[in-house]
Design brief:
This protein is of the alpha/beta class. It has two domains: 13-148, Rossmann fold; 181-396 and 416-442, 2-Layer Sandwich (Dihydrodipicolinate Reductase, domain 2), CATH 3.30.360.10. The chain has helices at residues 23-37, 58-65, 75-79, 92-105, 120-129, 155-168, 184-195, 197-200, 225-250, 259-270, 388-392, 398-408, 417-434; strands spanning 13-18, 46-52, 82-86, 108-113, 143-148, 174-177, 208-216, 273-283, 301-308, 318-323, 330-337, 346-347, 353-359, 363-371, 378-387, 440-442. The strands form two sheets. Strands 12-15-14-13-11-7-10-9-8-16 form a ten-stranded mixed β-sheet.
Length: 453
């Protein structure tokens, strides 16, 4: 068997970025890679090959992401790890040149597709044509590929991309990144549930009355009219962030706590989602935004109620709310426990509520009833608070943590092929229901349209 690698093997890692000149690379990817570089475990192992279609001077390229990097004490050293190469992925000559360069180094490779989904198929095909997807078993190098959300733009395109991916890569090589899965409060949900029997034993319809999932933003579309006209709230955050949060908060405990079994249980619960009533909204002035149609029906706000077709969650409504240009920025998951009759007590205690705070605060609140001092049999609401920064100090960014997971081959915090396709089945059904509905107009920086609850 011919070995495409050189005789001299470098045990490092080439991190190859398609779309290195884009906004995502500037704001998220390069700052995360800089933080990785400052970690002694990765400092001497990672080299970055930034690809772009344009001919750009090195200094000009480096200046595009420098403003987004904090604590620049080692930035000049970091710059030494970056190579910018003009590479048009539609050009056979450019891709052959890239292939020769990478194969001569015989290093492990991670491809990062920081590009719109419309470019996925062509880039993946180009990687396959020049053989860059192959792993060198003899020299124990690996090849992995990371794709950004939204993965595809409907179920049909997603299946097509998945077929292409799986014809070239194994499932264990594919990492579909959703930065919400890198957030500590979301990663902590499984530990919170499955380590603490006091909660997992009551995690069902006998004790829980409803669940709320909120992803609220206080900014508008910020000059992303073209993107938002194609996606709206449904594809921008419901298809990925929200459905991932729903699966984690409601999934059954896996028989084995490993990547494969966790992702399998998440997909099982997504298959049980049944859509209920909804409200579609649009903030006042959206149709005046740049690159937005004056007659646009695109939603900037969605509220819906869903149920899960499972014995565990029968008749427990899950309320989902997400929108742009609202009063507050707030992402959380609230679990409401059933009220207990209080004939023997007076006061204003409502019910037990478990609040997983995801942003801007990171932590958990538990609302419980407690006696008011000096008042006989009078109770009130008391919050038990756990904030991450109080316990653990500064946390790594979501992208930094997910890049480390990919380097280590850990897939628990990345969506599987099955999860992605199930999520798109739900989203496509939802899109058909709301597409031609006229949205309710709501004022900017408000609570959104009036809701039935």
């Amino acid at each position: 068997m011919n070995n495409p690698c050189s005789k001299i093997v470098d045990e490092g890692l080439d991190f190859i970025i398609f779309g290195s000149t884009g906004d995502l690379s500037h704001r998220k990817l390069f700052p995360a890679l800089y933080n990785l570089y400052k970690d002694v475990k990765y400092k001497d192992k990672i080299n970055i090959i930034a690809l772009g279609r344009k001919e750009i001077e090195r200094d000009e390229f480096l200046s595009t992401f420098t403003p987004f990097i904090e604590n620049k004490d080692k930035i000049e050293e970091f710059f030494g790890k970056i190579i910018y190469k003009k590479c048009d992925f539609t050009s056979t000559d450019d891709m052959n040149s890239l292939s020769q360069y990478l194969l001569s180094r015989c290093r492990s490779r991670i491809f990062y597709l920081a590009v719109p989904p419309l470019s996925y198929e062509e880039i993946i095909s180009s990687i396959g044509k020049v053989g860059l997807q192959k792993e060198c078993i003899e020299h124990k190098t690996f090849t992995r590929i990371i794709l950004e959300k939204p993965f595809g733009y409907d179920l049909s395109s997603t299946k097509r991309i998945n077929r292409l991916l799986l014809s070239l890569f194994k499932e264990t090589q594919i990492f579909r990144i959703d930065h919400y899965l890198g957030k500590e409060p979301i990663q902590n949900i499984l530990a919170f549930r499955f380590v603490n029997n006091v909660f997992e034993n009551i995690w069902n319809n006998k004790f829980i009355s409803k669940i709320e999932i909120n992803l609220l933003e206080d900014i508008g579309i910020e000059k992303r009219g073209i993107f938002y006209e194609e996606t709206g709230v449904l594809i921008d955050v419901f298809q990925n962030h929200i459905l991932q949060m729903l699966s984690i908060i409601t999934m059954n405990k896996p028989k084995i706590m490993n990547d494969e079994h966790i992702r399998r249980e998440k997909n099982k619960i997504l298959q049980k989602v049944r859509l209920g009533e909804f409200i579609k909204g649009q903030y006042e002035g959206y149709t005046d935004e740049e690159n937005v149609s004056k007659t646009s029906l695109r939603e900037t706000f969605l509220f819906t109620k869903v149920f899960l077709k499972s014995k565990r969650w029968r008749n427990v409504p899950i309320y989902i709310k997400s929108g742009k240009d609202l009063k507050n920025k707030d992402t959380n998951i609230k679990v409401y426990f059933k009220k207990i009759p209080q004939e023997s007590f007076s006061g204003d205690f409502s019910q037990n509520i478990l609040d997983f705070m995801i942003q801007p605060e990171l932590g958990i609140y538990l609302n419980f009833g407690g006696k008011v001092p000096g008042e006989e049999n009078k109770v009130t609401n008391i919050k038990m608070e756990y904030l991450y920064t109080n316990y653990f100090g500064e946390l790594k960014s979501e992208y930094e943590k997910l890049l480390i997971d990919c380097i280590q081959g850990k897939q628990m915090n990345f969506a599987s092929t099955d999860e992605i396709e199930t999520a798109w089945q739900i989203t496509d059904r939802f899109e058909k229901r709301i597409k031609n509905i006229k949205p309710l107009i709501y004022k900017k920086h408000s609570l959104g349209p009036e809701l039935p609850i």
